[in-house]
Structure formats: structure tokens, C-alpha cells
Design brief:
Blueprint (H helix, E strand, L loop, with lengths): L1 H26 L7 H33 L3 H21 L8 H26 L8 H10 L5 H11 L6 H4 L1 H36 L8
Helix pairs in contact: 2-6, 4-5, 4-8, 5-8
Length: 214
């Protein structure tokens, strides 16, 4: 869990450095990025709520364990609302110039990237000299390829504040997030079956062999 949280946070903050480099590489245009302002806003948006939540949790942990609020349902509803409002904000913008063919191409590219990343992480975590367990492999495949709108959209709004084509550059992330949910739902039965069979095979290989009587 700690590794997954670190991967998500580190990957998002790394985007602040990688994004301008990619713009320079693919578009040939350069721009100045106010790192101090961006990091301070991200710190207030992402890190401070996390710290406050951890502090408050220490004092209400027992109450939460007794009452067991439906945090799963609340989290899903909030995430669904963020996705819905972001979609509305993006496609309601009159400045967005995206035809249907381009949208289909973007969807195809996003799904291809998703499948490629998941396949590469699966190969990496199941190689012969790997020390990862089957459960570790499942966590790696899903967590290392995960990007969330809850952090991605605020980052885009901070990094590209005032940019007239902000809605347009938000489209890949809007597609990426539902795509990973859809692919995850489709792959869960297959990956679960592989994990269970792999765990049983490992248990059989680790069992001590009975001595042979002569």
C-alpha cells in the first residue's frame, strides 16, 4: 500500500518536469514553468489534506471502527461526480476543437497504452529471477499503471492555468481513467484465476518431499 501511494504521488509530481520536456520534444515550443508556485499549490491541494486526514484519524479511529461509515460508497460517489463534472466542463467548452475521428483515435491510443503498460509490468514482475509473489504481481500490474482524475485534473489546472486549450489537453486523462476501470473489470477474473493457480503451484513446489523407503 505504501509503495502504491508513493508511485501515484511520485509519478504525478514527476509530470511537472516531464510535461514541459515532452511539449518541447513533440511540439518544438518552450515555456517557463513556475515550479515554486506549482509545488506550493500542489502541496496545499494534495499533501496538506493527506496530513490532516492522518492526524484526525488517530483521534477518531476507534469511533470509525465502531460505526464503520460507508467510506467505499462515499469514495465511489465522489469519484463519479469528479468524472462527470470534468466531462461536462471539458466538452461544454466552445473552444474545444475535437472531431469524432480524432476522439476515436485517442481512445484507441489510450487503450493500447494501457494494455502495453499492463503487459510489460506483468512480464517484469514474473521473470525468472523475480522475488515477487503472485499477489505482488497483481498489485504491480494494477497500481503501477493507475492514474487518477482526482489528482490529474487539479495538476493540469495548476500547471496550465489560463491556457485556452486546457479542456483539449484534459481529454486523454478523461479517457485514461475510465479505460483503466473498464480494463480492470474485464481482466480481474483472468488475473485472479492466474494468481490462484500460481499460488497453488508454488505451494506444491515448496512442500518437502516424502523420504523414499528402500
Amino acid at each position: 500500500q505504501a509503495a502504491a501511494i508513493f508511485n501515484s504521488a511520485f509519478g504525478s509530481f514527476l509530470g511537472i518536469v516531464i510535461t514541459p520536456l515532452l511539449l518541447l520534444l513533440f511540439l518544438g515550443s518552450s515555456s517557463s514553468v513556475p515550479f515554486t508556485s506549482i509545488f506550493s499549490q500542489l502541496f496545499m491541494t494534495v499533501v496538506v489534506p493527506l496530513i490532516i486526514g492522518q492526524i484526525v484519524r488517530r483521534y477518531i479511529k476507534d469511533w470509525l471502527e465502531r460505526k464503520k461509515p460507508p467510506f467505499g460508497a462515499i469514495s465511489s460517489c465522489v469519484l463519479l461526480m469528479i468524472i462527470y463534472t470534468t466531462f461536462c466542463d471539458t466538452f461544454a467548452n466552445p473552444n474545444i476543437d475535437l472531431d469524432k475521428f480524432s476522439l476515436i483515435i485517442i481512445v484507441f491510443i489510450i487503450f493500447s497504452i494501457q494494455m502495453s503498460f499492463m503487459f510489460l509490468t506483468f512480464l517484469f514482475s514474473t521473470r525468472n529471477n523475480s522475488t515477487f509473489t503472485p499477489a505482488d504481481t497483481v498489485a504491480i500490474v494494477f497500481c503501477s499503471t493507475h492514474k487518477s482524475l482526482t489528482l490529474g485534473i487539479p495538476m493540469l489546472k495548476i500547471v496550465f492555468a489560463g491556457y485556452e486549450h486546457l479542456s483539449l489537453i484534459s481529454v486523454p486523462l478523461l479517457i485514461y481513467h475510465p479505460a483503466q476501470i473498464l480494463l480492470g473489470s474485464l481482466l480481474v477474473p483472468t488475473i485472479k484465476s492466474w494468481m490462484v493457480s500460481r499460488q497453488k503451484a508454488l505451494k506444491l513446489t515448496r512442500q518437502p518431499k516424502a523420504p523414499v523407503k528402500v
